[in-house]
Amino acid sequence: MLNLAMPQNSYPRPLPRRFFSQNALEVTRRLIGKTLVRFLDDDILMGKIVEAEAYIGENDPACHAFRGLTPRTRVMYGPPGFSYVYFTYGMYFMLNAVCEREGFPAAVLIRAVEPLEGLDKMMELRKIEDPLKLANGPGKLCVAFDIKSELNAIDLTSKVSNLQLCAGKDVAHVKWTSRVGIREGSDKKWRCFIPGNKFVSPGKIKLRPRKS
DNA sequence: AGAATGATCCTCT
DNA sequence: GAGGATCATTCTC
């Protein structure tokens, strides 16, 4: 559907690759306030990033690259600015942006966005109405933005990609806490979010007891 | 409010 | 086979 309120030449521009080549914590901090843009056949969806987490290198036990280079983690070892989309819990996709230099595996998990544009389509995809709950978690966000494995390893900095990370309004104040839903590595305060923002995820995931 | 459970399947061991 | 960067629903207190 043609959106007359926002003509094409006023879409935010994709962030440059050098943005993602910085260290992962810097990228995480600076992604807060930026815009996630998704182009569908008949809709354009946008959201303001309000929460993100860093996963950094082979020594971070919560990072998928902790177990080294595998077919799945290959994209994390590639150049910055690409998507790392993976499937988990038998049900959900997670969206990451690869960062740091090529050869060093690191990525930023986009955990929550505040919906800005295309709310009707997000409601249809999510099958709920409440704007506060459309994308306030990494799994929900991927449903709301129709992000699946076919969007893995795509260039988020290209203006022809149908998933982009774009300019936004800088956020003055953020808070850092432990990452959500992980078993090890919770000593590191690598989760960044806008304190008080209503679109941030609940941040409480119950880990199932491990058999052993 | 907090705990338990089902959904559901890809990736790595 | 096991476990997982989750979520919604259903319980129990």
Kindly describe this structure.
- This protein is 13% helix and 25% strand.
- The chain is built from four helices and eight strands.
- Strands 1, 2, 3, 4, 5, 6, 7 and 8 form an eight-stranded antiparallel sheet that branches.
- The longest helix has 8 residues, at 24-31.
- It starts with 16 loop residues before the first helix and ends in a 19-residue tail after the last strand.
- It binds a DNA duplex (13 and 13 nucleotides) through β3, β4 and α4.
Give structural attributes.
globular; eight-stranded antiparallel sheet; 212 residues; alpha+beta; DNA-binding
Quote the beta fraction.
Answer: 25-35%
Strand tally: 8
Gyration radius from CA atoms, angstroms: 16 Å
Largest sheet: 8 strands, antiparallel
In terms of per-residue confidence, which ranges show pLDDT below 50 for 5 or more consecutive residues?
A: none
Shape descriptor: globular
Order of helices and strands: HHEEEEEHHEEE
Mean pLDDT, all residues: 94
Beginning-to-end CA distance, first to last residue: 53 Å
Structural class: alpha+beta
How many distinct helices? 4
Approximately how much helix is present in the residues?
A: 10-25%
Write the layout of secondary structure elements.
Layout: H1 17-20, H2 24-31, E1 35-39, E2 44-56, E3 83-88, E4 92-98, E5 106-117, H3 119-126, H4 138-144, E6 163-166, E7 175-177, E8 191-193
Antiparallel strand pairs: 1-2, 1-6, 2-5, 2-8, 3-4, 4-5, 7-8
The protein binds a DNA duplex (13 and 13 nucleotides) through strand 3, strand 4 and helix 4.
In short:
Helices cover 13% and strands 25% of the residues.
